[in-house]
Amino acid sequence: xxxxxxxxxxxGVTYSVYIYSADYPNLNxxxxxxxxxxxxxxxxxxxxxxxxxxxFTPIIKKTATVNLYSKIYLGDYLFGKNSRSxxxxxxxxxxxxxAGFVEPNVYSQPYVDVYxxxxxxxxxxxxxxxxxxxxxxxxxxxxxxxxxTNKTFADIIQNILKTHLGQIDFVGxxxxxxxxx
Length: 181
Prior knowledge:
Elements: E1 2-8, E2 14-21, E3 28-31, E4 39-51, E5 61-70, H1 75-78, E6 86-92, E7 95-108, E8 116-124, H2 141-146, H3 153-165
Parallel strand pairs: 1-3
Antiparallel strand pairs: 1-2, 2-6, 4-5, 5-8, 6-7, 7-8
């Protein structure tokens, strides 16, 4: 399933939203911008929040909220069975400004006459890493300990990004990058 659509803010900047789920590979839903569309952006369509408590925060996480009006029920498509089942990318013009996942089991769709307001809550890809085991220990711990080698922090991060996030940019087809300061 792919939801895709664009809107312009009051300054004329174009934002594009792409939501993808492998559970519905042949379903494409266009997010329109005019009355009569099944799914449209609301007037406060997008909010991206950076969670940074101070200048020494080692990992800066982001969350995004996408607000849509819909004539059709979207719960089945946006219901994430785990933290990485429904991907989302948000572009400002041609630059990807948010890549992540729809929060599992979290969406809001009240019941109104014609259009329902659907709020989709999203977390960045880095935030989902806390839910997974990265050592991939299949054999017992003693065997793993005997064959263990030294790794740098960069090796660990690169392996996590490659193994667990893969190619997070499904629209632009760019690999994940690590910037080290």
